[in-house]
Design a protein that fits this description.
The structure is a single chain. This protein is of the alpha+beta class. It has one domain (7-144): Jelly Rolls (Sandwich), CATH 2.60.120. Helix content is 46%, strand content 29%. Strands 1, 2, 3, 4, 5 and 6 form a 6-stranded antiparallel β-sheet that branches. Helix 3 packs across helix 4 (104-144).
């Protein structure tokens, strides 16, 4: 999300972040809750889970969490639980919006990076969906045979 920012632009973002530590098994984000802040994971590991607590993926340092909700205002799409003690920078939605208004060039870089991230995630999801469809077809063939 913050790739290709100049050092001075990155410093502007760091100025509005608050450091925070999280204990193992702590619920960081709850599915369906309001998106009021995002995290930049600095250390530790987070588990992203579905509402039924199925682990969807693990997040490692220098990953952002909650950026989509902060930008779109939509409720959280998953739970995020601390898998290993973690530390992060917390960036509030309000402070982020003020920063983007004050420094539109920072917003341009961040939004471009988000589009790239979403494109990559969509490609990965499409690949996973295709794999699932193949498995379903193979299972149907096996059951029919």
């Amino acid at each position: 999300m913050f790739q290709r920012l100049t050092p001075s632009q990155a410093l502007e973002i760091l100025k509005i972040c608050t450091p925070r530590s999280f204990s193992s098994k702590e619920l960081v984000v709850q599915h369906g809750s309001k998106s009021t802040e995002m995290l930049i994971l600095l250390s530790g590991r987070l588990a992203v889970t579905a509402p039924d607590r199925t682990v969807l993926t693990y997040l490692t340092p220098i990953t952002s969490v909650g950026e989509m909700g902060v930008i779109t205002g939509q409720p959280r799409s998953a739970n995020v639980v601390v898998a290993e003690q973690a530390s992060a920078f917390v960036l509030s939605r309000i402070k982020f919006e003020v920063l983007i208004k004050k420094f539109p060039d920072i917003g341009f870089v961040i939004y471009r990076n988000i589009i790239q991230t979403l494109s990559t995630r969509l490609g990965s999801t499409n690949d996973q969906l295709a794999d699932c469809q193949r498995e379903i077809s193979e299972l149907r063939s096996t059951v029919a045979g």
